[in-house]
Amino acid sequence: TLPRVYVTRQIPPEGLKILRESGQVQFQLWDSDDIPVPRQELLEKVKGVDGLLCVLTEKIDAELLEAAGPNLKVLSTMSVGFDHLSLEELKKRGIRVGYTPDVLTDAVAELTVALLLTTSRRLIEATHEAKTGGWGTWRTLWLCGYELANSTVGVAIAERLAPFKVKKFIYTDVAPRPELASIINAEYVSLDELAKQSDFLTVCCALTPETKEICNKDLFSKMKNTSIFINTSRGGVVNQEDLYEALSTGQIAGAGLDVTVPEPLPTNHPLFTLKNCVILPHIASASYSTRNAMSALAANNLLLGLRGEPMIKELKL
Ligand code: GLV
Ligand code: GLV
């Protein structure tokens, strides 16, 4: 009999088509994209499966892996992020893990630029003013923001910003990455220097124990009060109370967030009361083509893993 697979979401059609037409697996799925599969249902459904295809709303932890049992050999997540996975528990059980980096890079970079410009040029405030009667007359400093021209950007979206006359790109990482940095002529600096020098600081690292809340009081206090902070990685890299403080006291000029803790961010959250904070509902990779590419990659990773072959994109555990 064919290996059994559970898919925790109605994933975009390209991935489902690959699973269906492979003839290699029998799969069941949570047939909705509007709400995640309830935890109890998930714990039931994974019993005895050989493979699991999940999205980032599912916590893959010891409890779930116990519920699945020893048949489970392959986990494929339709995400580049892996902070929803207990890597240690997966490793302990010898479960291979596929994920979907690279295919979403363009979509995320585009959204990051869009969010950066939306925040720095205050577009949400501006459309609101236009619509609600705030547009009394043309005014000389009304809705002024900060421009990219002549700025210093701490960044992973440098290639996209080439037309904007940015003066200098700087970046930080656990170690310099000359092969990437040379393409965009970016200088490696410490996190401290990054905070001090950046006019636009964008975060795009994975959430790990090392990066948890690295964007905190200490970092914001080193930033200029004209600087814009952008996060399209994971909400957990930011201490949100510290960010609220920095934004409300004018320590930094603005923030654009595609990710928060928790998600969804409650509508009565203090960050929503700030005019200089733009919050998006985790849509950085949300283009039709990219979400289908992620779906297809997740499906292919799963099938390859179940055949005992190297996956296209596999996490080293
Ligand atoms: C999106 O946030 C992802 O991890 O793919
Ligand atoms: C702006 O529209 C200007 O004419 O300065």
TrEMBL record:
UniProt entry keywords in alphabetical sequence: Oxidoreductase
What is an example of a GO molecular function annotated in this UniProt entry? Answer: NAD binding
The segment(s) forming the D-isomer specific 2-hydroxyacid dehydrogenase NAD-binding domain are 113-284
Report the residue ranges that make up the D-isomer specific 2-hydroxyacid dehydrogenase catalytic domain in this protein. 5-314
Q: Does the keyword Oxidoreductase apply?
A: yes
Q: Among the entry's GO cellular component annotations, what is one?
A: cytosol
The answer to whether UniProt assigns keyword Oxidoreductase to this entry is yes
| Record PROSITE patterns | D_2_HYDROXYACID_DH_3
Stated family: Belongs to the D-isomer specific 2-hydroxyacid dehydrogenase family.
What is the protein's given name? Glyoxylate reductase/hydroxypyruvate reductase
Source organism of this protein record: Lates japonicus
